[in-house]
Amino acid sequence: MLFESQHPLVKHKLTLLRHVDTKPKQFRELVRELTQFLGYEATQDLSLADVQVPTPMGEAPGHALQQKIGLVPILRAGLGMVDALLEHIPAVQVWHLGMYRDEETLEPVSYYNKLPPQTTVDTCLVLDPMLATGGSAIATVTVLKRWGVKRIKFLGLIAAPEGVEALQNAFPGVDIHVAVVDERLNDIGFIVPGLGDAGDRQFGTFA
Length: 207
Ligand code: PRP
Known about the structure:
Number of strands: 15
Radius of gyration: 18 Å
CATH architecture: 3-Layer(aba) Sandwich
Order of helices and strands: EHHEEEHEEEEEHEEHEEEEH
Strand content: 25-35%
Bound molecules: 1-O-pyrophosphono-5-O-phosphono-alpha-D-ribofuranose
Distance between the termini: 37 Å
Structural class: alpha/beta
Number of helices: 6
CATH topology: Rossmann fold
Shape: globular
């Protein structure tokens, strides 16, 4: 399923994020803030166990998160989305995967993967601000499925329709949560209108 946020704060912040004059410091803050909102929406269906909680006045019924959750940022750009979620779900595990797009072929190239042989999480949130052709997300989900993760969601900021379609075709069970689905991909694989390169804009690495 595709979930495109309808929240006014998300729409407002996304507009600031896209702006050509937004500098890396503000860009990083906005990525973080948007991730908090999108993460809130994407975690609505996490399952809970019933627990009892002792209060100063006695016992109260309560709830505890049941599953083991992994955050999987795709390097580099996904890094900026990690802290926003770690702050609110401190018990998560963070498993980094390094993936870059070959500029000629647009195919993802894996360069960092330190997953142990046995899976340690039930549910993963794949973090990457941009879903362009979908190649990086598909490669990541493939790795996580092979690792044995049962439930996977993709959390991004801007998607191209082409990337959404590719990821949904490859993995219909993976929910996609984004702030917006833009118009299209251009001939060099950038999302239009998009925001440019989310990695470079966060880390100030402009050639
Ligand atoms: C960008 C982006 C995604 C990928 C999306 O990363 O952050 O990871 O491209 O494209 P796709 O859907 O067509 O695979 P990039 O390769 O520029 O690496 P970076 O994050 O290190 O800048």
